[in-house]
Amino acid sequence: MTTDLPLEGRKGHHEDPVLNRSLERGIEILRAFRPGADLLGNGEIAERTGLSRATVSRLTQTLVSGGLLQHDRSQRAYRLAPLVLSLAHAMRSGSLAMQVAAPLMRKTAEHLRINVGLAVPDRDEMVYLESVRYNKKVALRSVVAGQRVPIELTSLGFAYLGSLEQEARQQVLRRIAALRPASWQQSRPGIEAALAQFAAEGYCVASWQPEVVAVATPLVVEGHQVQVLNMSLSTSSSMRDVAKEFGPCLMRLKEEISAALDMTGPDGQ
To answer: Please, which residues have CB within 8 angstroms of residue 249's CB and are 6 or more apart in sequence?
Structure first.
């Protein structure tokens, strides 16, 4: 596992002979693009990645040549190229876990009239693989595949932390504390309460958006990447009431998906 520090901020880093440093840096550049940051210049990329401007300039040209970035000459900036979307589509369509889970998630969402999501961890965030939104009201926050949410504030993140061994969990929490020190102290009590609930119930609840409550549990199947399943709804009910009503439903869905995945074998993710 590579260090979480920016590539050029590593002190005393012993380079792993298996890793390609340029490729690793190129991936960091692609990671710099997020919703709301679709067009970035070399200076902005350098600031986001911790790489030097010279390194960024060289690698962005390579990524343009490889079809992963497009160069907007008028803006002197870069955006992700369509090839990135093609790769994402290939990932989704090739995931046996998603093929198995999606129909069961959709059935549950329609039956309970609730939102159901499936996500995986990526560093300090959770990334949605699938999101079945039952409530179509425009006023409600829209969640789509590929969207990221913070680990330290969400039921998805709490459930993921609950699935980890102590040392692995501490590594994730140390990264979050380093990246967001201002909010870290406020986040800790919620994390501790969620982990206690997870230890007792197998799931945890959170409400990080106004009047939106979610309950989540990890989906751990041998041969598959750890994923996290959640249910959410817009409600004025307390987190305790939502957990009491939907926690058992979530655990039943988890058992259904796990049993179906056990029958298919590993999907190679």
So the answer is: 108, 112, 231
